[in-house]
Amino acid sequence: MNDAMSPAPVITLPQGRIKGTAAHGIRQFLGVPYSAPPAGALRFALPVPPAPWTGVRDASKPGPSYPQRLKPFPGLDVQPLVDGGQPPGDDYLTLNIWAPETGDGHPVMVWIHGGGFVVGSKDAPISDGTAFARDGIVCVAINYRLGVDGFLPIDGVPTNLGLRDMLAGLAWVRDNVAAFGGDPDNVTVTGESAGAMATADLVTSPLANGLFRRAIVQSGHGSMVREIGVAKRLVDTLARRLRVSPDAAGFGSAPYGAIFDAIEGLAKPGKVDLRDTAGFEPVFGISRFVPVFGDDVLPVHPVEALRRGAGKDVQLLIGTNAEEMNLYFVPTGVRAKMIGLVARWFVGKSMPAAGKALKAYGLGRRKAGWAMTEALHDLVFRWPARVFAAAHQGRTHMYEFEWRSPACGGELGACHGMELPFVFDTLDIATGPEGLAGTAPPQALADRIHALWVGFIRDGSLPWPEFESGTRSVYQLERGEAVHEPVMPAAAFLP
């Protein structure tokens, strides 16, 4: 046995004992159930505690992920961002734990993965929690229901099942993390992309009160939600495409392969109208599946909930990347091929005054693809995140990740997801000819960003002023200092 290896740790939980692995001062437990498998009668049911087991459950392997279909990006390896390559299976409402091998009362970080609410996994290599455990944090990563199972308001099915899974996972952490050396009264919930949207929503949810002290929202905000009535259009459209009844029995009878085919058939703009009464589609076509508001999880729109004081006791770190939409438009060639007429049509499917918004970003004076991409950086991610920060009545800090990846011939830049290997100190996962961060990303920057996250998770400390509407102080991570950020042109065109 390697000298760095330790005897396999065994933890006793209410349902039974689990055995993980230990090495280099870190204990690891993978695929630990926080809910019974959502299969059969439980597929569209509220999460319930797992059944007890006898003997010692093996927690050295991650177990299944929610069924999904990952589409490749030309010339870019994105699998490390969203998927650990686990096979599908029913027993996927599980979590991973990385913990220091010794000591108690460690701060706790709960990670919610991204993936547009249709793909992703707690086992994505880029978000491995080892470095956080190395630095004294108990890191917990959770799976949750996705797509049709988690974010489709089907008649007779509880709404927002994916968010309810996250709430169940957080409750499990509250009740069990002390057994792994964690402090249940010092929990930070974190997420990126869809995981960040969910985290932002949970900050405002009355059902999350007391489950966490802090939140980190990476490239997300609370405006990617739909009214239940609008989301019902997606229910009906998918049911017609699948030729099933628009209820639990109908969707439950459809094979996942057919469901994925139907979802892909709705990917292009105009296939289903999900605009609200004001003419806005807040997701801009990135995903058809998002949380809904108007239920007990999200009684009102999350931004309105913040303005009413929801989440004011939660310390918030929120930020975006400088060139979010490059991930979608650069590797695919969309930015280079875009023409003005198509840009106005495309953006117009998600908002009124699309032409004026694009003109404010240079359409007519510069190449259409560049104007559209820069407009959507702000319209989809950057400005709504600032709106969320300004509405939060508690302590709020804002960052911007601006380091530019040299991938894709130097054009990928500070795209969506680029901060992940820096936050988790997993640059090796994103490095290479087709790596997200190119061939020689700066480890010193990863050291500094990871340390900032550790400090905030530990005790809320950050070395820059709070974000306020008047001062608009935003910390630029590569630059290493806070700057005053002007109001973006997008502000004139969004609610």
From TrEMBL:
It is an enzyme of class 3 (hydrolase). GO terms for molecular function: hydrolase activity. It holds the Pfam family COesterase. It comes from the Bacteria. Keywords: Hydrolase. Belongs to the type-B carboxylesterase/lipase family. PANTHER family: CARBOXYLESTERASE (PTHR11559). This is Carboxylic ester hydrolase.
